[in-house]
Design goal:
mainly alpha, 10 helices
C-alpha cells in the first residue's frame, strides 16, 4: 500500500473541520485561508485569526493546524494588544482639533480621502476582535468637498443641476408623505377593527383612545384636501 502523503493528512484535517465545526465558523476558516493564500495575511496574523475560530468550537484541532502550517511562532498566538487608552475627547467628527487640521498638506487618495497624521490621537474603540483590528480603517478620513463643505459658498447652478436638486427635494417630500401616511394607517386600522366589533349603542359612545397627533392630522388633510378638517373633527366627535 502507498504510504500516506501530506496531502491526505490535509484532506483528513479539513474533513474533520467541516464535520465538527459549525458551518459559519468553517466558512470563516476558509476565508482566512484564502486571504493567506493571496498573501494578504502574514502567517502570524493567520494564526491569530484561526486560533480564535478554533477556541470557539474545536480547540483540539488547533495543534494539528499548527503542524500543517508549520507554525512555530510561540506556544499560543494571541490577539494584538488593544491601543493604549487615550485621554477622554470628543469624537473625531466633532472634535475641534479635527477641524484645525490642514487637509491640503495631507496625503490624498482621490478627491475626498486624506490620511491622518501619525501623531493624531485616535479615539478608543472597544469591542474589536482580531479580524476587526485587521480590516477596519483608522487612518483614512473623508473630507467634504464642493457643496458638502460647510464653508462652501453657493454658486450659480445650470439648468441640469437645478433639475437634479429639485428632483431630490421632491423625492424627499414624497418619501416623507408615504411614511406619515403609513403611520396614520397603522394607527387607525386597529381602531377600525375595534369599531366593527361594537354594537350600535356602543358605537355612538365610542371615542378615540388618544387624540390624533399633528402628523396624523396632516396626513388626513393631505388625503381629503378641503374636507380634511371636517374629517378630523368627525373622527374626534364620533369615530364610528
Amino acid at each position: 500500500a502507498r504510504p500516506p502523503t501530506s496531502r491526505s493528512a490535509e484532506a483528513e484535517f479539513f474533513s474533520k473541520c467541516r464535520s465538527r465545526m459549525p458551518k459559519p465558523l468553517y466558512l470563516e476558516l476558509l476565508k482566512c485561508l484564502n486571504l493567506y493564500s493571496q498573501q494578504i495575511l502574514e502567517r502570524s496574523e493567520l494564526m491569530t485569526l484561526v486560533s480564535d475560530l478554533f477556541k470557539r468550537s474545536q480547540v483540539d484541532l488547533l495543534p494539528a493546524f499548527r503542524r500543517l502550517l508549520g507554525y512555530s511562532g510561540g506556544a499560543e498566538p494571541r490577539a494584538p494588544d488593544p491601543p493604549s487608552p487615550q485621554p477622554a475627547r470628543a469624537p473625531i467628527a466633532e472634535g475641534s482639533s479635527f477641524r484645525d487640521l490642514d487637509f491640503n498638506a495631507m496625503k490624498k487618495h482621490g478627491t475626498s480621502y486624506r490620511i491622518l497624521p501619525d501623531d493624531y490621537p485616535a479615539p478608543v474603540c472597544s469591542g474589536r476582535g482580531p479580524l476587526e483590528q485587521l480590516v477596519l480603517n483608522d487612518n483614512w478620513v473623508s473630507v467634504p468637498t464642493g457643496t458638502e463643505d460647510l464653508n462652501f459658498k453657493a454658486m450659480r447652478k445650470n439648468q441640469y443641476e437645478e433639475s437634479i436638486f429639485r428632483a431630490e427635494d421632491e423625492r424627499f417630500e414624497l418619501d416623507t408623505a408615504i411614511e406619515t401616511n403609513a403611520a396614520t394607517v397603522q394607527l387607525l386600522t386597529p381602531i377600525q377593527e375595534e369599531v366593527h366589533a361594537l354594537s350600535e349603542p356602543e358605537k355612538r359612545r365610542f371615542k378615540l383612545p388618544t387624540p390624533l397627533s399633528a402628523m396624523h392630522c396632516k396626513s388626513i388633510r393631505r388625503l381629503y384636501g378641503t374636507q380634511g378638517l371636517q374629517v378630523i373633527e368627525l373622527l374626534h366627535k364620533c369615530p364610528a
